[in-house]
Amino acid sequence: MEDSNFSRRFHFVPGGNQDSAIQELIFTAVEFVSDLGEFPRSKTIRDQIQYVSKHFRTNDLVLPIPQARKDFSKAKQAWELGQTGSIRAINEALRFCPRTQSLVCELYLKRAIISYQDGYYENAKEDLVEALLVLDAKNFILEPETVFRIHHKLAQCWSKLKIFSQAVRSLRTALVQLADCNFGQSEKSQFENMIQESIDKLSKKTDSKRKVSPREGLSLSDPKPDNPCLSQAIAIVNSSHKGRFAIADRKINCGEVIVIDEPVVSLMNPDDEKLMDDLCAHCLRQCSNFQHPCPRCSTTAFCSLECRSQSQLVHGFECKVNLNQIRLENTSDSFRVFLTWKAVIQIGLEEFKRLYRKVGRDLNEPENDQERMFQMMTHERERHIEAHIKYIIVALYLHKLLEKAGVCTSDRLDWELVEAIHHLLQVQDVNTHPILGLCDEGGRSSEVGLAKVGNAINVNIGSFINHSCNPNTCRINFGRKSVLVATRTIPTGQEISDIYSMHYSEIGRQERRNWLKSMFFFECSCEACEGHWPTYEELDTNGIEPNVMEDLKQVESGIFHALKRQDFDTAFQLHVKDVHILEKAVREPNRIYISVRNSLQFCLWKKYGHF
Ligand SMILES: [Zn+2]
Ligand SMILES: [Zn+2]
Ligand SMILES: [Zn+2]
């Protein structure tokens, strides 16, 4: 069997890219099992798994696990640079510094001072709290002056945050510390007086209510009571030939946010070292300026203590097998099977198996997103035999990795768990959305520079919103959340559509449809496919009345200037106006629709998606 033909059958690696050790192993295993020639395709999945596991040792699938290590000498090197105030260098030092070293506290203090100067009081406070936590846990001997400075700075942060009771508490502790400090006598009493004055002043003030952080600001204006991810503008309908899908329950305006999907499971792409430096491993937001590293490994960082603690369970196991390091060394971007691995840990073994047992047997509406995820389409029957075998082998591999991480406590194979993993791998293959983030645009102000930062299973968008090569919405990411925004006026009753592959304007009809068929197992019947709409190059801008053209030009010039001065609200409003003019005067398909759509999507990314 020729290699490239062989690998082209698998969806993870289009083009037959076998550039990683784990992929290589799995491909070899698939080839080996396929060559046996007696795979029991017609038997139950349990029989098939047992057949595969009988023919080779699953131990062979697991590569040696690289040690998750801090590196004090690297930390010290970075700290040398960090002395000059480079946040990036301090972050790097923090990442590599073992928490058994007192340098950790110095690093947090240094970063807190910089954050404080720049007005990021919340960040500065978190750093100082963290420094004190480490200090308490490790019993370092820090110079009393340093400890004094930590408490004193912390008091200033609390005061800036208007939590005066905490500020007073920190000042009192600072005062106690001051006694041990090696300051001159007059300096000491000066400090004492200053602190005492502050205590007197701040004691009289009342704490302000904590503000909600603005990054949580994006929300639906009218969420459905039974499913708050969906707007009430959407109705879910059921048809015998199409299954469930979403239509507009009222007229939806261009620019309206209609779905905000919090994924059941999401995964960063740590195959890119730069991303790992810049993104929070939990919420996938940018955190290049301020991050809290994992206390154990040096490959993972979080944007806040909250994200770090929310990720404790999942990353705890990831960290044990040093998953991010494995991925960095041995996998490439397309190898996203660890999404399912993460789902097992997140959901818990017993619940994971219970959810699997319900698939196909419980015909009631799914009760929650996890159930819905397990009941998404798998297209198991339509898969090529080698692809099928591959999922079994990957499931065995992931089971082995769960064992190594200590998630499975017995070292015997749990057949039901392997089955359940196999099932979710197939769900994942056809229902995963990429998570994109705005990348550094290098001054280009009107292009969407997007980087793929991860993958997610969004059950609401995935279960209810069908594909169209000419969709009436676009998807943007807000951290790891996926947000669906109308890019057209959607009249009552019209189906709401998303796009799974390329837009009709980007790739020819046949190629597009073949791809959809091979990846998602369906024949597209959207208006662009049915109507044989041409691609962008072949589209024209003719047929537009001169006065309409004049109106469009005016609006577009307004958009250009608004984008230039980063006024995304105005730019957004003007896009909506642009779409309205088009809808009144110009028939689709037309080039201008494509340009406006792309520009609107960019604007929405800037308005909502910039994290
Ligand atoms: Zn985060
Ligand atoms: Zn870690
Ligand atoms: Zn189509």
UniProtKB/TrEMBL annotation:
GO terms for cellular component: cytoplasm; nucleus. GO terms for biological process: methylation. Keywords: Metal-binding, Methyltransferase, S-adenosyl-L-methionine, Transferase, Zinc, Zinc-finger. It holds the Pfam family SET. GO terms for molecular function: histone deacetylase binding; N-methyltransferase activity; protein methyltransferase activity; S-adenosylmethionine-dependent methyltransferase activity; zinc ion binding. InterPro entries: SET-MYND_domain_protein (IPR052097), SET_dom (IPR001214), SET_dom_sf (IPR046341), TPR-like_helical_dom_sf (IPR011990), Znf_MYND (IPR002893). Residues 280-319 form the MYND-type domain. Residues 232-501 form the SET domain. Residues 205-214 have a biased composition (Basic and acidic residues). Gene3D superfamilies: 1.10.220.160, 6.10.140.2220, SET domain, Tetratricopeptide repeat domain. Residues 205-226 are annotated as: Disordered. PANTHER family: SET AND MYND DOMAIN-CONTAINING PROTEIN 4, SET AND MYND DOMAIN-CONTAINING PROTEIN 4-LIKE PROTEIN. This is SET domain-containing protein. It comes from Tigriopus californicus. The lineage of its organism: Eukaryota, Metazoa, Ecdysozoa, Arthropoda, Crustacea.
